TrEMBL record:
It comes from the Bacteria. It comes from Actinomycetospora lemnae. PROSITE patterns: ADH_SHORT (PS00061). InterPro entries: NAD(P)-bd_dom_sf (IPR036291), Sc_DH/Rdtase_CS (IPR020904), SDR_fam (IPR002347). Pfam families: adh_short_C2 (PF13561). The lineage of its organism: Bacteria, Bacillati, Actinomycetota, Actinomycetes, Pseudonocardiales. SUPFAM superfamilies: NAD(P)-binding Rossmann-fold domains. This is SDR family oxidoreductase. Belongs to the short-chain dehydrogenases/reductases (SDR) family.
Amino acid sequence: MTEATPPAQDLAGRSALITGASRGIGLGVARHLLDRGASVTLTARKQGQLDEAVTSLADLGAPERVLAVAGNSGDAAARARAVDAAVERFGSLDVLVNNAATNPQYGPLMEADLGAVAKIFDVNVVAALGFVQEAHRAWMGEHGGAVVNMASVGGFRSSGVIGAYGASKAALIRLTEELAWELGPAIRVNAVAPALVKTRMAEALWSGQEEEIAARYPMRRLGTTGDVAALVGFLVSDAAAWITGETVRVDGGLLATGST
């Protein structure tokens, strides 16, 4: 049996802040970056879930490189608190992963509650920009860094049922390009666009019909948090030093089929 290759420690000495990191993709990204030597600050709304997330990372044996800061990403004071805590604890903020998202609207847009739509854009777009502003103020503006925004294939094509969410992710893709232009060369800003990933947030979209949905993908399976985390890890590393303003699809080939 071939032994697994140990992860490269190419992110050692770097500090990363991941939003929406108590579970799902955010927690998967935190685990991946921690495994590659980075220090990680996890932020999400609920302290209890963050505590569970920190416990789940204990097998990596680096508790001194993990910090959890509870707060709502839609709250400006909470964003500042998380960024400041990361810089104070680890001495820098080299990586920001805007993963926090919400989707309280499902179904036709003509029947959508506009309050729910506003919340989607506030969390998925405005808060992401707010975190970049805070990171720029606290560290990146003077020292540089890398930002990854969590977009979605829904930002490229209509879904018919999660239209407001898709529109917010399209806005995030454009925001990524604008920030890459404005903040280069010291700060690189990219996005990743997953298709359906098996997380609790997306469970209603695949539970009970996983095989049927997976058959639509050329890769014949749904995504995992590890699939997304590995791409994020590449984009924040020196291996991606000349990549900025890009949105990279990690979708098992779904968009190549012309379907959604």
